[in-house]
Please model this.
Amino acid sequence: MRHDQARWTEEGAYEPLLSETRTETAEPGDALPDDLTRDGLELPAPAEPEVARHYTRLAQMTYGVDSGPFPLGSCTMKYNPKFTDALAGRPEGAVHPDRPDEALQGTLAVCHGLQRHLAAIGGMDAVSLQPPAGAAGEFTGIHVARAHHRANGDERSEVLVPEGAHGTNFATAAMAGYDVVEVPAGDDGRVDLDALRAAAGPETAALMLTNPNTLGLFERDIQAIADVVHDAGGLLYYDGANLNALLGRARPGDMGFDVMHYNVHKTFATPHGGGGPGAGPVGVTEELAPYLPAPVVEEREDGYRRVEPLRSIGKVHGFHGNWPAVVRAYAYIARLGDEGLRAASANAVLNANYLAERIDFDIPYGPFHHEFVASADRDAADVAKRMLDYGVHPPTTKWPEAVDEALMTEPTEAESLADLDRLAEAFDQVARDDDETLRNAPERTAARRVDQTDAARNPRLSWQALDEE
Amino acid sequence: MTGDANPYVPHSDAERATMLDAVGADGVEDLFDVPDGVRFDGDFGIPSRDERSVRREVRDTLGANADVTEFLGRGHYDHYVPAVVDDLADRSEFLTSYTQYQPEIAQGFLQALFEYQSLLVELTGLPVANASMYDAATALGEAALLADRVRATHGDAIYVPETLRAERRAVLDTYVAGPGLTVETYPTAEGTADVAGLRAALGDDAILVYAETPTVRGCVEPALSAVGDAAEDAGALFCVGSDPVALSLLERPADAGADVVVGDASVLGLGASYGTGLGVFATREEYLRQVPGRLVGASEDASGRRAYTLTLQTREQHIRRERATSNICTNQAHLALRAAVHAAWLGPDGLVALAERCVELPRNLAAEFDGVAGVRAPVDDRHPFREFVAETARPADEVAAALLDRGYAVHAVDDHEVQVCVTETTADETDGLIAALTEVA
Amino acid sequence: MSFDVPADRRYRESHEWIRSADGRVGISDFAQDELGDVVFVELPAEGDRIEQGETFGVVESIKAVSNLYAPVSGEVTAVNDALDQAPELVNEDPYGEGWLLDVEFDEGDLDALLTPDAYRAQIE
Model:
């Protein structure tokens, strides 16, 4: 399959900037005295038909999951069910959080319902929906760990992170004031238990783990890993990015994890929206429940109430997180139920294994689950650019570093057999394309290869900056 | 429909059999490498239901929310969102796309974010604006971390007004815990900064001074530059909190000496949504490399045309890891798109007009409140923006409860103070509110 | 591919060099090639002190960020301001115009460093 993406061009650019079509300057009136107001506001002033055309063209020059396969590893770019769109919008969602609880019983019921479902799915005892993204969930979880240790009179200074972990894990630990200790993987791509034993000690606040890991491998020694960390007095944190592989078959709570975050924009199909909003709810065992950020929704005799847990770490968001993602996730889980969730993980794993079988690339580590990491024979970034010409979004490139020229690939359960075959064909076609073709790629996308070096050396971050040149 | 337990899995049984055959497995279960000791064979107790049932159930559940008119604000606001926003922003190419790591195929979204950044540059007067943070509170937290990182500042104290919303203060406290910074307050008067009190409070440990306009009590801050001067004299960065509608009218933060601007842009494109936010973060050129979050830059592509790309990604977690400026990854990009569409639809005239209504409406309503026996308004001798505080002879929580019974929600902010927000979406209901207030005050 | 390894320098295994004659410090040809297009360099200020073996700054390309490790200890006497506007000098002329800083140091510190031959052996 080839994909010729829509492209609007005009004199040295693609679709013109709104500022290049028509700008106007609006002066403040006399609602406020002059010394409290700004000078004229100069902004684009398109009429509604122009707004419609501008953004329609921009949409045509954007590729989403509805356009074609999007097998980014650890992103779980699965189909976003349309029926959740209406539920996320107005008027039902258009409430102010400062209503008293008794006037919010509907919203709180949905929140409570999602808390309950997520707790069940993760094998946890309590859940907060406040973190507005996975990284925020990690931040919350590490702060919960911190509070737990302090309550025990313990000032631990280190967080352990496997070398192949997502960048957010490292950044989160640093943001929370911890030193990061990297735990190497063994030859089999899993956490090296001996190295972990050597690294874990009285300074260990937590080990952050994704399971299956970023190579798609299940950490078989998870119980031993949990024991090592717990024996050292640390907590075991689960990064929920790869939960789609385990839905209904294994739960972090049963593996010894004490605290976890869920990525609803991954596992629970809420739309990525070009970079959010998602949500990163946090689940904990009963022992850690008192530390969750406020509010947590509880069901009382007289209705739902937002409560502040007894030893709450405080807040990680000004209100209660991202409502649109919360209600969509709730609706998705309600639609699928137990059976549908189990079918998600089953087909996610089947699809990844089938795709891996079909492509002619070396996959050094296995047995993998919902994602695998293939090794490109040439620069993975160039391979990715050429895949765009075949109508697929490429996998994640150059990570994890355990695999040379890594292509971390997660098709998800939402790819049909025909689309998987097309995706496999795209991989193999690129492998057959010559070096020059790869260097010149992409040719059929709206834009040709963008010069990222110049963008970094000479940052131009607004139309005002362009005007100044 | 495949008749499967999961309607979003496009496999027939025959197709699944073909695939299993190809991988050499008897059943899907064989593909799982999960030790028996941690397998889960139970149920979550969640039945699956068809789409129609789930839609009805969720709608009915949400219908349990009380049917009240919200005169609520204090950091989360409702404005009219035109139909084009849903229609255009929810196009599935936008909605189902990912972070733009492959710019060639995502020029559309990248340009929309570039335009959004430019909107904030015009509103704030600062040259660098990112493509979003989670919300106003977390953006303030990130501003504190930036102040800690930059070489220009020496110290560890963040100064905020004593009236800062408790929730924002709580988030700030969480963010500063890691680097071990402290949060101090400075006094306010008439709902805005008490500059003399601020100067007295500022120590040489100050690295950031924060002020909001409008303030949480709905007052336009008349001393913004003076607060900025005090910050500068103390060797601290000056951070202003505001929103794009307010900034369409109020003095530009850059002109008042702001080094950083934070706040919430969900006043455009989203409206009330149970507190969902769109964090703003803008700053000076010299702090460019300390900025958290995504930045979209203009460059050229291989055809020589102007093209857009995420840039300066080495600041971010996926490259810099523990040295990243922030751990932020997924943010509020789609809401930034919605805000950009809304701003384009309004144009500068529409934005200024909306902002001026945000002054006139509360001014007029406060006067009407003042005419009700047992009520004095406005409490703060300041120009209002969207909201104002009124003093009630009767205890405020009783007044608020009684109003709620009659279908109107207001804030009770102190023993005898209520706060009322009014925008164009509730302007038609103010007569009813006044009538109810007359009964309950 | 053969990388430049000038004889009048000493090298750290982390690819920094120092010119013993005048205390000029930079990164090697091998390093700039590994990094790819340099987009930014973060350096200390004049008057700051750097410690042998510890991080004194960072060099960024579009795909990576690398710590810079001090080859010697001492006070920074000059910093290459040209890199602000032209970070590509590090790629184009890593031993000349792409220098990073000058440091006043103790001769004894050089003993811990690699000779040009030893460094060449390491990178090949």
